[in-house]
Amino acid sequence: MLKTTGATFLAIATSFFILHFSPPPKSYYHSLFISSSLSDNASISHHLRTLTRRPHVAGSQANAEAASYVLSTLSACNIMAHIVSYDVLLTYPDSRSLTLTPSPSEPPITFDLKQEIYEGDPYADVADEVLPTNHAYAKSGSVVGPVVYVNYGRVEDYGTLKEMGVNVTGTVALARYGEIFRGDIVMNAFEAGAIGALVYTDRKDYGGEGGDAKWFPDDKWMPPSGVQVGTVYNGSGDPTTPGWASSEGCERVSVEEVESSGDVPLIPSMPISGADGETILRSIGGQIAKDNWQGSKDAPTYRVGPGPGVVNLEYNGKQVIATIQNVMGVIEGVEEPDRFVILGNHRDAWTFGAVDPNSGTAALLEVAQRLQKLQRSGWKPRRTIILCNWDAEEYGLTGSTEWVEENRELLASRAVAYLNVDCAVSGAGFHASGTPQLDDLLKLATQQVQDPDNSSQTIYEQWIQSTESSLIGRLGGAGSDYAAFLQHIGVPAADMRFGAGFPATATAAELSHHTNALPLIEAPNSDNND
Prior knowledge:
- With 530 residues, the protein is of the alpha/beta class.
- Helix content is 30%, strand content 22%.
- Helix 1 packs across helix 10, helix 1 packs across helix 14 and helix 3 (41-51) packs across helix 10.
- 53% of the residues are buried.
């Protein structure tokens, strides 16, 4: 799937700066770009395998090595490439524990908080490099309280509990992931009076329906021990430099000021697995939850509590000013060198990142290599092309936001468009969201590229047949690195991918050859900063 679909994505993405931003005589190069003569499926597969061989969270040595690989690949393409570094506030787990006392007469249950590695996992040798499951920027602390089940943790869910006469004050909220950003789940719990929050992955949403449902590595569904990790920071960029770049020697606000900003939670929180969440649910009594609050067919009956189950949640995180590295590549335009077409993807991942984001990184590098081949044939871009590989996106769109803040005036006056891809391939079917200025271009480009799953039709024909709503979605929230370009400086933007949401991340091996690997879970569905 990655071989064919990834190559198709490359053709679509590059159409933006070859087809649209070049004069008609250069249309020959667009045809050359999407022809089989420039195709090299082995290279994109190699990129993905190299980038995802080890976990590479932002600020780690493994991620710095991944940055060096991206830099060397761009440089080998004779592209002017360099690293732009920023020193930003990141957090890492130091210690954590979770204990449940189901009732006063029952012994406590201590959860091991581990994601299981399946037999034969070829990445088992580096699995211990994965960070313990946590929420980035979670509040450190220790809380003990009865559990209340709050459905998805939305404002309306707390309204329902109030109507039922359930008092959330002094409790630990148990919410299932989905519907809203996890940071809002924790914030809503705090505002309702809870002293802590647990966010679990419900089988109904991510585990597959029915008793015969299979999960990764046998299917796409989240395994019982899988945990969705991610940030709970509601802002973007370095929390200690709101509105300005985190350059060397810059002014910073204090951690206390960060907490008072309202962008980081004020109660401890922790992501947990579906299996652990279900164990806690079995300890909750009280009124039966509404039908649309219930779980899958074979799940226990969900009740809202509070208690009698009581949890002891302890989390201690460490805050570090760490160096992050954006890798930038520039191909200067010959007619309008002061106008920029920007293609971006982030590199950092909570675990291995085979779908999010490194299927997109592999695509970015393949674009660079194909552009080099075009240059050898005499092609030169009309406008300057900037290839961006961002760092620390998972923490809060940090690398891209810092770069936009540092170059705000220049980009606001010169950037033509920003094209983003994180999850280049998670399955079949093309999807795109963007600002209206790019609608016609998206349609035109997809009409010229063959559908990788059906050679008798174009991507556009597949696209219009597969959607029941608007063909092109709109970019909202802070879903990915387009946010700083669109929302801070008003640059037209698009976000593209093949495949819809993925409950569990596939591996490079699975994407390339449909083999099995890697049980460790990335955060699915880009609701915010995923």
